[in-house]
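Folding Problem: From Residues to Backbone Shape
Fields: amino acid sequence; protein backbone structure tokens
RECORD BEGINS BELOW THIS LINE
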Amino acid sequence: MRTLKYILASLLVSFYLTSCDTAQDWIDTGVSSPYHDCSIMEYLRGDQYNWELTVQMIERGGLTAMFEGTDPDYEEITFFAIPSYTILRYLWDNDLEAVSELTPEFCRETILNHVVKGKYLKADIAYRNPDYLITDQKQDGGTALTTVGGRKLKAYVDKSSYGGVPDVGAETMYLYSYSAQTQVPLATPDIQPLNGVVHALNYNFVLGKI
């Protein structure tokens, strides 16, 4: 328990130091290039700070082949990646100390709820119709996605204003879950290992809210 508290405290410090940054660029992926000459699983294993518990959930759920790119049914995947901090907070809230205390079925279902078959980069995602909220029935923008676990999502891109001129500023990717009826906080999109793409979720993502 002491080790868990130490890890949680360290992550909380990091979280509060970065919580005011709203740009999708503050999860430290280790290098500036979005391209990684390895599988998604190797990429996640190589960054224990952000993904150690994520890797443990993937392995416990029996999904290693999917993330290594060796599952013939999933040559490429899009992973809305759960950061270790989110998993740690879930363990803490449920009076647990390790991923090994979660059932394999729970780990598998949770991870599959964050996986979409095929590769969807930010550039593949349609813009939101700015005349309507993403939840409006008249909204005809964005890109509908269904995860392997059956969750219904809508990814979309918005253009921001710059210098008072609308739609000429930065383009930001967002994710809405119709299944959970909630906005899903994205941090870093378009991390590209060889067998797909990782869109890192924000540290304040709550497990199950997708």
Observations:
- Residues 2-18 form the longest helix (17 residues).
- The chain is about 30% helix and 20% strand.
- The first strand starts at residue 77 and ends at 81.
